Amino acid sequence: MRARRISGIVRPRGWTTTALRGLLFAVLGLFCLYYLVPLIVMVSTSLKSLDEIREGTLLSLPQSVTVDAWVKAWDAACVGVRCDGLKPFMWNSIAMAVPAVLLSTALGAVNGYALTKWRFPGADWIFALMLFGAFIPFQVILLPMARTLGLLGLAGTVPGLILVHTVYGLAFTTLFFRNFFIGVSDGILQAARIDGAGFFRIFAGIVLPMSVPAIVVTVIWQFTQIWNDFLFGVAFTVGDSNPVTVALNNVVNTSTGVKEYNVDMAAAILAGLPTMLVYVVAGAWFVRGLSAGAVKG
Amino acid sequence: MASGITLSGVFKRFGATEVIKGIDLAIEPGEFVVLVGPSGCGKSTLLNLVAGLETLTSGDIRIGAQVVNDVPPRDRDIAMVFQSYALYPTKSVRQNITFGMQTRHVPRDRQEAALDEFSRLLQIDGLLDRKPGQLSGGQRQRVAMGRALVRQPEVFLFDEPLSNLDAKLRIEMRTEIKKLHQRLGKTVVYVTHDQIEAMTLASRIAVMDNGHIRQFAQPHEIYEDPVDLFVAGFMGSPPMNMLPGKLARDGTARAVAVEGNGAPPILFPLPGRLAARLDEPDGHEVVLGLRPEAIFAAGTELPGPDRFVFERTVGVVEPTGPDTMLVFAIGPVEAIARVRPGDAPDPGTAFSFEVDMTKAKLFDAASGLALGARTGGR
């Protein structure tokens, strides 16, 4: 699955071409800066002491590097009345995101497989309705969902949040897997059926191992969505069961005492770190999955 | 003991489209039957019906004595080879071949024995740990065959298995499939659009068109006694020359008059045996079918009965190696003659063609059915 080499294609030469290329790189450089400056400011601020922040400018680099702010953000910052830092809420987010990602991805895979390879009357309608779910603004379902969680006895708990994310992730995960499986040859499934395998045997033994790129894309997408979610977190959890996004908001918005910009910055980076990590680890797969099927390997 | 396959009154509809329009076919145990026809004629659908990958609309399919209409593919005692090979891409060759036995819980030692026997037979025993992506087209085809063979079913179904191979490999594999059939003696149903594959492999050929079987007979009979213009035109390469004409008399003998473009008609004398079986009156519109090999350079073959010589200007000369094709205009159509390379003239020159009229076929122009056929048609 190597990309076709395009570096050897003959290009016109001349000063206009050179100038245009120079312009291209200048614009690209500007955009890079535009995206990187906030990160640089955040990292450098988080490594300064409060005094330094008060004396220096926003863009000046830290004179004496200190990780105090990071330690405080992790361990001791006050979230509301509790002063244990982000740590407990980080665990909340992990306990919520990991099962929700796995569940929604697994169910999406089965859905996509059934919708494309075990066609039944009305399959297209069901898919259209599921797709509709991807376009519903989440604010619309806040009240009915709160009522449902209440009836199920899951209101204000991490399992309740897992359920919400799994249900609302299904639209996207089903879409991803359906679009991947539609490119899988029906002949393979026919062969497997003649070989005597049934619905789940074919799914687990043949289809799932083929869909690693789709799984990776879906996991990254779902993890980013669920980890970064604020609305469901703030609506359906209380205090101790808050995910880290809600806790971060509470850290930053604490109105008592001095504003600790360095702690806020460190906390924000900490809260965003897991998604970044997932991108770095699985980034290569992400790109590959997005272009999977574009060219026959 | 292999099982036969019996189809009676088989219909298949997809929504409003009727794809299989009433097919009756009795395939003997151990027979190699080729379903051949143009694309869209329903041959692959018919094979899928036998495999159980499609559901019958009406009719009955029997494998052996059992009616299998409602039997799922896994319980039909069949194995199938697909055009796209349909190998499992994430499994090794070994796993591809044994997957069917695993799902059927065949004991491990019997799996190993079967794998060993058939991978050696197909010369893929050195490739067992590779993935399908690391194999060439011919090797993939062998693995697909191995997967079908290890099951040791009573019936093999082949769906255009050689279509994706290059010409040389296709001929090799064709021979191997024939050898395998001779060795194993199982019933085979083989779908192809390639009439040469059909001729070389089949013990009987079913020529299909538009959801019907036009003719079901042994290869030489399909070739020598096609029941109608469709079968005649489909089988043979280059195709049979079809000259439109009218029944006429040459003296007292019967003949076919083929009109030239303004030129006086050519009278092709009909052999006595064919003429004797004709009931149609003079002036009846017919199509005279002459295969390219029945037209050759005058005087180059040993003399025989019912020869007829005429002269035409050669339009195009197409050497193929063993033979050279001469294209020339006759009446409203272009005809092809097959001559020896040494006899080929330059294009644009006049040339004497000799026709072996004992090999001529005659069809009714209106119905397309063979006239005076020995087997009496359908």
Automatic annotation (TrEMBL), chain A:
Chief location category: membrane
Entry superkingdom: Bacteria
Topology relative to the membrane: Multi-pass membrane protein
SUPFAM superfamilies to which the protein is assigned, alphabetical: MetI-like
InterPro entries referenced in this protein's UniProt entry, alphabetically: MetI-like, MetI-like_sf
GO CC, alphabetical: plasma membrane
Pfam families in UniProt: BPD_transp_1
Gene Ontology BP term (one): transmembrane transport
Family label: Belongs to the binding-protein-dependent transport system permease family.
Listed name of the protein: ABC-type sugar transport system, permease component
Source species: Salipiger mucosus DSM 16094
Automatic annotation (TrEMBL), chain B:
Gene Ontology CC terms: ATP-binding cassette (ABC) transporter complex, substrate-binding subunit-containing
ABC transporter domain span: 5-235
Pfam families xref list: ABC_tran, OB_MalK
MF annotations from Gene Ontology: ABC-type transporter activity; ATP binding; ATP hydrolysis activity
Keywords linked to the UniProt accession: ATP-binding, Nucleotide-binding, Transport
CDD domains to which the protein is assigned, alphabetical: ABC_MalK_N
GO biological process: carbohydrate transport
SUPFAM superfamilies in the cross-refs: MOP-like, P-loop containing nucleoside triphosphate hydrolases
PANTHER family found in the cross-reference section: ABC TRANSPORTER ATP-BINDING PROTEIN, MALTODEXTRIN IMPORT ATP-BINDING PROTEIN MSMX
Recorded family membership: Belongs to the ABC transporter superfamily.
Protein name: ABC transporter ATP-binding protein
